[in-house]
Design a protein that fits this description.
By secondary structure, this protein is an alpha+beta fold. Helix content is 25%, strand content 27%. It is globular, with a radius of gyration of 16 Å. It binds zinc ion (ZN). The site of zinc ion (ZN) has 6 residues, from loops. It comes from Lonepinella koalarum.
Length: 209
């Protein structure tokens, strides 16, 4: 898997562009800065197959509609429990004082725990990881040993739970019962900040005991 991480928006959200050796590609959490992302995907000569969304927060989905229109691809995820967040995107924009975007819904909700999403030559297992957002999901690529899990688990940190639909107990359960069951050498690419591994977080994360 080829990966390029492009931090987007004032929140420095880690948007990931991934592609295989045939240049089939997907983009995960395009939170904003659509022109920059489009330019980069075109410059790399990639054949974009779809847009994957971990959860319905503005800084993760803000450029999704523009990318969908430009590349004529579909959006997949998050879990439909995030409907309230997608509906509240205009309020989210005002709350954070950033660019205003219209409400939308993804083309496909990913509601089935453990279902496999095949895209761009990769196989992602879908895990429901509520707590930071009610419909938050993770995209786990077991063959590549890499997990795209948004704002659930950070390097020595965890996602905030004070936003709409957030729940601290759910978040800790998502980490302990699902993420910490993944192999220790699984690389975690979070929505913000540096990457880590499951093993490192089990040892060092001060918020999950
Ligand atoms: Zn978030």
């Amino acid at each position: 898997m080829n990966i390029e991480i492009i931090p987007v928006t004032a929140f420095q959200q880690n948007c990931s562009i991934i592609w295989n050796d045939e240049k089939k590609a997907a983009i995960i959490d395009p939170g904003g800065d659509a022109p920059k992302l489009i330019k980069r995907i075109d410059a790399l000569g990639l054949d974009l197959q779809g847009i994957l969304l971990t959860h319905g927060h503005l800084d993760h989905v803000g450029a999704a509609t523009k990318l969908k229109q430009y590349f004529n691809v579909e959006m997949m995820g998050s879990n439909s429990l995030d409907k309230i967040l997608f509906a509240a995107l205009p309020q989210q924009s005002r709350q954070f004082g950033v660019f205003e975007i219209d409400a939308f819904e993804p083309d496909h909700w990913l509601d089935k725990e453990g279902e496999i999403l095949n895209i761009a030559g990769f196989e992602f297992e879908i895990l429901h990881l509520p707590g930071h957002a009610p419909g938050h999901i993770g995209f786990i690529e077991h063959n590549e040993g890499i997990a795209f899990t948004g704002d659930v688990l950070f390097k020595q940190g965890i996602g905030r739970t004070d936003l709409l639909g957030g729940n601290h107990t759910d978040l800790i359960n998502s980490i302990k019962q699902k993420m910490y069951q993944l192999p220790d050498d699984m690389v975690v690419l979070p929505g913000h900040g540096p990457h880590t591994t499951i093993g490192q977080e089990k040892l060092n994360n001060p918020f999950v005991k």
